[in-house]
Specification:
5 strands; 221 residues; alpha/beta; 5-stranded mixed beta sheet; Nucleotidyltransferase, domain 5; elongated
């Protein structure tokens, strides 16, 4: 089953205040293993980045000024996520911004039925504990040293590992390949198991009979 791990960075917190997406990143998973299919764009939000958001991701107005606008990549984005579950940490935030951009671009919005929110999974699994991405990386001993700033693609890479651990799965690198599995099964089937039957001698049977008669006759007969 193919899934997409998704993250965005924005000019600010709320779409109600007119904030827009400045970066979108997606990593495809196939049976929980990252594929080479990646969707990533920096975007011109057509407005200024708030000071608070700049402190989080570090993308300046000047850096974003010559980047594509969301409507220019909307069709490619929708094709990338088509018929796949979307894995997001705190989905309410990202989907609100993505649906706002899709609405501006005149495209159909994403419905919640296609969304898996790892924040909800973590909240149910670790009630009362810190469940932000950094805390979950620490819990699962995932190296997040590259996360000096919040960037969509790095956060997707980390979230993919967190998601696998939340599901109680091993890291993909520890999985056997299909050829290894076939070879292992062949090796097992090729083992010749045999059962060796040892028959007692006449003398051994005689001694056993005398032993039983001497020790158990009084108790059981």
């Amino acid at each position: 089953m193919k899934e997409v791990v998704l993250d965005t960075e924005t000019t600010g917190l709320s779409v109600k205040d007119g904030h827009r997406i400045v970066e979108i990143g997606c990593i495809e998973l196939d049976e929980l293993i990252p594929t080479k299919n990646i969707f990533h764009f920096y975007l011109n939000p057509e407005r200024k980045v708030s000071e608070e958001a700049f402190k989080v991701h570090g993308y300046s107005d000047e850096f974003l000024s010559d980047k594509k606008k969301f409507y220019e990549i909307a069709d490619d984005f929708l094709n990338f996520i088509k018929d796949k579950k979307i894995i997001i940490h705190n989905a309410e935030f990202d989907i609100a911004h993505i649906n706002n951009e899709l609405s501006i671009a005149g495209k159909e919005k994403i419905t919640k039925v296609h969304i898996v929110d790892t924040l909800d999974i973590a909240r149910n699994k670790f009630p009362g504990s810190a469940i932000n991405l950094d805390a979950l990386c620490k819990r699962f001993r995932i190296d997040n040293s590259k996360r000096a700033k919040h960037t969509a693609l790095i956060d997707c890479e980390l979230l993919a590992k967190v998601y696998i651990n939340l599901l109680g799965q091993k890291e993909p690198t520890l999985n056997f390949s299909k050829s290894d599995e076939i070879q292992t099964n062949q090796n097992i089937q090729s083992i010749d198991y045999s059962k060796k039957i040892i028959s007692p001698s006449v003398d051994e049977l005689k001694k056993h009979k005398e032993f039983m008669k001497k020790n158990f006759k009084k108790n059981f007969f």
